[in-house]
Specification:
heterodimer; A: 249 residues; mainly alpha; MetI-like fold; 2 domains; globular; B: 268 residues; 12 helices; 78% helix; 0% strand; disordered N terminus; disordered C terminus
Chain lengths: 249, 268
Amino acid sequence: MNARLKRYSPFVLSLGGGLALWQIAGSHSSAAFMAPLSATLERLAQLIEHGRLVELFLSSASLFASGFALAVIVGMPLGLLLARLRVLREALDLYIMILYATPMVALIPFILSLFGFGFGPKVLVVFLFAVFPILYNTVEGARSIKPELIEVARSYRSGEWALWREVMVPYTLPYAMTGVRQSIARALVGMVAAEFFLSSSGLGGLIMTASQSFDTAGVFAVMLIIGVMGVALTRIGLMLETHFARWRG
Amino acid sequence: MTLAAVSPPLRPARMIFAGPVLPRLVAGIVILSFWEWAVRSFAPDFVAKPSAIAAVLPHVISGAPFHESTAITLASTAEGLVVALLFGTAIGVLMGRSLAADRALRLWINGFNAMPMIVVLPLMSLWFGYTGYARFATIVFAAIFAVIVNAAEGARSVPKDYVEVGRSFRSGSFRMLFEIVLPASMPYLLAGLRLATGRALIGAVVAEFFTAIPGLGYFILYNSRTFHQNEAFVAVILLAGFGVGCDWLISWATRHYLPWYRRDEKVE
C-alpha cells in the first residue's frame, strides 16, 4: 500500500496541481479569454447530456479509424513489397522520403476543389497524413535487413512464402510499428484538419462553432476530449511499438 | 517508461545523393507522366498537372506575391522556432536534471505533446484575433513540446561520469550546464529540432488557412480557390523543398558535427 502510494503520489499531485492552476487562472480571467476547469466540465456534462457530443465523437472516431486503417492496409503491404523488390525500392525511396517530409496540409485546398467535402475526401486527408510514416519506416527497416539472412534462407531452399513469413515480415515489422506510432499522431492532426477545412463536422466542427459563438468553455471542453483521445492513442501506439521492438535484431 | 514520441530515425540525407540514379529517374518520369495523363483524361482543365506547373513556374517564382508570401511564412516560422527552441530547451533541461520538475511537468508535457496541435487554432484566433500573432502562437505551440520532450530525454541521458568529473573539478552549475549537459544532449536537441521544424511548418500553413492572413498557406488557398491550381502547386513544391531541406540539413549536421553519435544507440 505504502509503495503504491509512493509510486502514484507524484502523478496525482502533478495532475491535481495542474488542474487547480487551470481553475485559478480561468476564474481570474475574462470568460471570453479562458474558461476555468469547473465551467469546462459543466459544459462537457451539458454536451454529453444533450447527446450531441457522443454523436460528434463517433463521427470523428470513424473518420480517424477509416483513414488510419486505409493507411495501414496500403502502407504495410506496399512497404513489405518494396522490402522484397530491391529495384522498386531504390526507385521509390526518394519520393517516399520527400512526401514524408512534405506538410500534407498544403494539399487540402486541392482535395477540396477536386473531390468536394464529403466523407470520402476527409478520409483521403487522414490517409495522406498517415500513410507516409508507415511506408517510410517500413522501407527504412527493409534497407537494414541483413543480406546474410536472406542468403541463409535461400541456401536452405526456402520458398518465397517461407522467406516472407520467417525473414521479411518479422524483420520489418518493428520498424513498421515505429511508423504506426508516428502515423497515429499524424492521423489525428489530419482528422482535425479535415474537419476544420473541408466541411465542419465531428469534434473539429464543434470547436469551430463554439469558438465562433465565443463559447470558450465549449472550446476547452472539446480540446479536453481531443487531448484525452490523443494521449490514449499515443499510449496504444507506444505499446504496439515496444511490443514489437523485442524482435529488433 | 520513456517519454512519448522521441523522434524518427535520422538518416534521410544519404538517400538523396547516394544510391542508384537510373531507377529513380525512371520512377520519377513514370509518376509525372501518369499524373499528366490522369489529369488530362479525367479531370477538369484547372486541375494542376506537371506540364502546366512547369509552364507557370518561372512566372510565379519571379512574382512579388510569391516572394512576399514566402518571406512572411518562413520568417514567422523561424521566429516561432527560435522561441520554441529557447523556452523548450530550458524547460526540457530542467525536467531532465531535476526530479521534482520532471514529476511536476511530465504528465502535462506528454499530454500536450500527444494532442494534435491544430486544435488550438480556434482558441488562438479567439485570443489574438485574425492576426500574425495567432500564427506565431500556433507555431510556438506546435513546436515547443517536441523540443521539451527531446531536451528532457537528452539531459536525462547525460553520462553520469561526465557529471562526476565536472563535480570533482568543482565546476559551477553554469559551466556544468553549458559545457557538459547541453553538448552531451546535442543529438537529442537536434532530433527535437527536426521534429519541431516539421510541426512548425504545418502550424504556419494551417494558421494561414484558418485566419486567412498573408503567407504561403494563404497563397495556396487563394490560388486554388480562384482556379489557379498550377500556381498554388508551386508553393506546395516550395514547402516540400523546405521540409526536405531542413531534414537534410539537420541530419547532415548530426553526422558532421556529432560523428560519434549513432542513431542505433538511441532509445526508441
